[in-house]
Amino acid sequence: MIESPWSFVLTAIFLATAVFCAVHLAQSRGASAAVITGSVHSSHHGPVATAVHVNHLVMSLAMLLMVWRPVGDDAR
């Protein structure tokens, strides 16, 4: 586990990136209609963009877990 001041800083950062990725994922899910109106950049929709947003969301949540849970050989 990471020590006190850094654990809170990293929690805030990884939580912010998780929220950011979740918002982009939600936007990319509804982007097909929005691209027609021009409100979302065309590269933010489709299966590749969805996979990227899902992977980043899972990674952010995993990093949050690693901040608060001991992992590896020193986890005993």
Outline:
By secondary structure, the protein is mainly alpha-helical. The chain has helices spanning 4-29, 31-37, 47-68. 72% of the residues lie in helices and 0% in strands.
Description:
This protein has 76 residues and is mostly helical. Helix content is 72%, strand content 0%. Helix 1 (4-29) packs antiparallel against helix 3. The longest helix has 26 residues, at 4-29. The mean pLDDT is 79.
Number of extended strands: 0
Q: Over the alpha carbons, how many angstroms does the gyration radius reach?
A: 16 Å
User: How many alpha or pi helices?
Assistant: 3
Shape: elongated
Could you spell the SSE succession in H and E letters? HHH
Largest sheet: none
- Which ranges are low-confidence, i.e. pLDDT below 50, for 5 or more consecutive residues? none
Q: State the helicity in percent bands.
A: over 70%
Mean pLDDT: 79
Beta percentage is under 5%
Q: How far is the N terminus from the C terminus?
A: 12 Å
Structural class: mainly alpha
